[in-house]
Design goal:
Blueprint: E1 4-5, H1 9-15, H2 18-21, H3 32-42, E2 47-48, H4 50-57, H5 64-81, H6 103-110, H7 118-130, E3 138-141, E4 148-149, E5 152-158, E6 164-171, E7 181-185, E8 188-189, H8 190-201, H9 208-215, E9 217-222, E10 225-230, E11 235-236, E12 244-251, E13 254-261, E14 264-265, H10 269-276, E15 288-289, E16 292-297, E17 301-306, E18 309-314, H11 324-343, E19 349-352, E20 359-360, H12 361-371, E21 380-382, H13 386-397, E22 410-412, H14 422-426, E23 429-433, E24 436-440, E25 444-446, H15 449-453, E26 468-472, H16 479-489, E27 494-497, E28 515-517, H17 518-527, H18 535-538, E29 544-549, E30 551-553, E31 572-574, H19 584-592
Parallel strand pairs: 18-19, 19-26, 26-27, 27-31
Antiparallel strand pairs: 1-20, 2-14, 3-29, 4-11, 5-6, 7-8, 7-12, 9-10, 12-13, 15-16, 16-17, 17-18, 21-30, 22-25, 23-24, 28-29
Helix pairs in contact: 3-4, 5-6, 8-9, 12-16
The structure holds 2-acetamido-2-deoxy-beta-D-glucopyranose (11 copies).
Length: 599
């Protein structure tokens, strides 16, 4: 249970809780402006003022020495490990929207740049890394991690005449605006503003349709209930440049402007996140969604029946908060749910993975085996550099069980057997990526046998690709992408909901694979004394975290294709409307029509 593909949004939202410890600046160096925030928090206030937070951020000056060290270390980490450093220089496949980027050259350009404030430097590097549009690869500072919220979320509908509109999904301040059309944002057409924000400021997917979906709000199953996901336009992690946004609304022909200030929660993100994502839909209660009836609640997944078909909702593959026993329970319950369907004679299944942000690959591998016992998972490899070779040698030598760098974690695709030694794993494979010759390890499958030993052996189920359909809003990331893209290669039809009109788009994003970050690299360096000589090259300042894709996965059907760069559009596109945005059962009914075997 170790090779975690970290989740995308949930990672950002749940992992950092610096605010409960304090604000930027340690006790010796804290500025007066940041001290003021600290004092407010002491009084137990729920929210901070935008202007106070800005004043604190503005009080921490740019440090050129630190900036140069930071850039050099980022370059070393990326050159040493980042699987897509070279492929990022290639033109996107049609369907994807990103600019090819030579990250090392771009980072070098920052070496001579001056800033007034540290956060400006951090944001610039973060924005540059975001240009990869690789949701696994991010750069953040724990010192600048407040959230900024508009108290307000939007969604997009396609009207019967084919035109697209932005509307108010939910409004915590003035519910009378709900379902009014948002025609303009700060005086510019709302669709253009959201699209440009999705194009330039979101990084979770190489597909602009998916980024557009996550800029807006959508309902998804998570945190044991239906909650609002996405809303990245209204819920920001970077200090907005201006204190307010104005929206022009058309409410039943009444046209007026509203202006919203940024709300900054004073508490840690773990505490505020459930509040800002809470949503009560009139179509959903504990036992039903629309006309669908809950037949089994497996905590992280739910099993419903509707008309003559079954629906499986899966919110996550993450086992990060579970101990070993709970993980076994989590996966056993999924088997129980499917078994209930089989016992009821259900032959049509909608798999709804909307807003599933990934988690642990063992969960993916297990569910693939459960549904298709005879197919292989996607193979993977890691970049071979002096740095990664040192890690592979040392960690294999220590036989760290299940570790990404231990050759014993894999089965070779060449021999269908374990590797005999490190050299066989490292191999001699050179590929041309982004015009450069790059070495990667021998392609291999994760060998899950140790993990599978403690998991239940599922019964033989009666279904094939003819009996299922996959439904997502494209925000099926990481381990989730690995799962649904593999099922799609086994010919399960796919449906994605949302995006732009008449544009079939990705049903999953960021297939991975396994990620590492500068904190885990620092831990590894201190755990293995033989790697100490790399410490000065690879150790980033404690307040900064660089996260990156370490392993890449390949298609099975097209073995040379790296999944992250392979545009896979869904077979079918659905749209949200006023009802289906709040009643997922309406989408289930539409998706069920695309199951190949209808009786
Ligand atoms: C940033 O945060 C670290 C703790 O993570 C703290 O030691 C440091 O003083 C902070 N830096 C600034 C400039 O506030
Ligand atoms: C926020 O600013 C307003 C005025 O803009 C002020 O009345 C209020 O007291 C401030 N609140 C905090 C927590 O600073
Ligand atoms: C600037 O950063 C360097 C390296 O992190 C550090 O040693 C130095 O104390 C910092 N300077 C100031 C003025 O904070
Ligand atoms: C709303 O604000 C915009 C500027 O952001 C302005 O051009 C427009 O006239 C305003 N509309 C109304 C109805 O007040
Ligand atoms: C969006 O990205 C652009 C380009 O990186 C940057 O200049 C701008 O500040 C970003 N805007 C927001 C709201 O983050
Ligand atoms: C406002 O919305 C109505 C439909 O709800 C539409 O008929 C009307 O043209 C819209 N007005 C403007 C100025 O967009
Ligand atoms: C949930 O909704 C269904 C259908 O509207 C209704 O039959 C059922 O009693 C409701 N259950 C609860 C617990 O409210
Ligand atoms: C539930 O089914 C009834 C009867 O077929 C139908 O009238 C109603 O619109 C359905 N409700 C939803 C939310 O789909
Ligand atoms: C490995 O297994 C695959 C099927 O999974 C098979 O097609 C291939 O021939 C096998 N290769 C070897 C060397 O046995
Ligand atoms: C997978 O690893 C186990 C030991 O953990 C080993 O016994 C088994 O042979 C391996 N499977 C393959 C196909 O290499
Ligand atoms: C690696 O492959 C290249 C050509 O693909 C070959 O020239 C070289 O001898 C190989 N090296 C080893 C150690 O096998």
């Amino acid at each position: 249970m170790k090779q975690i593909y970290f989740t995308i949004f949930v990672f950002v939202a749940f992992t950092y809780s610096v605010h409960s410890q304090g604000v930027p600046g340690d006790t010796d160096t804290i500025t007066n402006e940041c001290q003021k925030i600290s004092d407010y928090i002491e009084t137990g206030t729920d929210y901070l003022n935008y202007s106070d937070v800005k004043a604190c951020y503005d009080s921490i000056p740019f440090n050129k020495t630190k900036a140069v060290q930071t850039i050099e270390t980022i370059k070393e980490l990326l050159k040493g490990f980042y699987a897509f450093l070279d492929q990022a220089k290639d033109e996107p496949k049609p369907g994807y929207t990103f600019t090819p980027i030579d990250l090392i050259t771009e980072l070098d350009l920052f070496l001579n740049r001056d800033y007034s404030y540290e956060y400006e430097f951090v944001y610039d590097i973060g924005n540059l890394i975001d240009e990869l549009r690789d949701g696994h690869t991010t750069f953040i500072s724990k010192n600048f991690s407040y959230y900024f919220y508009q108290g307000f979320s939007m969604y997009s509908v396609i009207r019967p005449d084919g035109t697209q509109q932005i509307k108010v999904f939910d409004d915590t301040i003035d519910p009378s605006t709900i379902d009014c059309q948002v025609t303009h944002i700060d005086g510019l057409p709302a669709i253009d503003v959201i699209t440009e924000f999705a194009r330039n400021n979101l990084s979770y997917s190489r597909d602009l349709n998916v980024r557009f979906n996550t800029a807006l709000a959508s309902l998804g199953f998570g945190n044991r209930d239906f909650i609002v996901y996405g809303q990245d336009f209204s819920l920001r992690t970077k200090l907005p440049t201006v204190p307010t946004i104005s929206y022009t609304l058309n409410c039943s022909d009444k046209i007026f402007n509203i202006t919203r200030e940024w709300i900054v929660p004073a508490t840690s993100s773990t505490e505020f996140y459930p509040i800002f994502t809470k949503y009560k839909s009139s179509y959903i209660n504990e036992t039903s969604v629309g006309n669908a009836s809950l037949i089994f609640d497996a905590v992280f997944s739910r099993f419903y029946t509707l008309q003559d078909f079954g629906v499986v909702l899966m919110s996550t593959e993450s086992t990060a908060d579970l101990n070993g026993d709970e993980t076994v329970r989590f996966l056993s319950d999924i088997v129980v749910g499917f078994k209930l369907f089989a016992d009821k004679g259900i032959t049509k299944i909608v798999l709804d993975f909307s807003n599933n942000h990934g988690g642990t690959v063992i969960v993916t591998d297990y569910i693939i085996k459960l549904l298709f016992p005879n197919i292989n998972i996607f193979p993977e490899d890691i970049k071979v550099t002096d740095v990664s070779t040192a890690f592979i040698n040392e960690i294999s030598n220590a036989n760290a069980v299940g570790n990404l760098f231990n050759y014993r974690s894999y089965t070779s695709t060449i021999t269908n057997n374990s590797f005999n030694n490190v050299d066989e794993f490292i191999g001699n494979n050179t590929y041309t990526r982004g015009g450069a010759q790059v070495k990667f390890t021998t392609k291999a499958f994760r060998n899950d046998s140790l993990d599978f030993q403690i998991l239940p052996v599922p019964p033989k189920f009666p279904w094939t690709e003819e009996n299922m359909v996959i439904l997502t809003n494209g925000a099926c990331f990481s381990s989730c992408a690995n799962l649904v893209q593999r099922l799609a290669e086994a010919n399960v039809p796919t449906v994605s909901v949302g995006g732009f009109p008449n544009t079939k788009f990705s049903f999953a994003s960021c297939s991975g694979g396994t990620i590492r970050d500068s904190d885990t690299i620092r831990d590894t360096l201190s755990l293995y004394p033989n790697l100490n000589n790399l410490a000065s090259r690879l150790t980033l300042s404690q307040d900064l975290t660089l996260r990156f894709t370490c392993a890449e996965v390949y298609s099975i059907n097209n073995p040379d294709e790296v999944m992250d760069f392979s545009f896979r559009q869904a077979d079918y596109q659905l749209y949200y409307d006023e009802q289906s945005a709040r009643d997922p059962s309406s989408l289930w009914l539409q998706a069920a029509q695309y199951i190949k075997k209808q009786s």
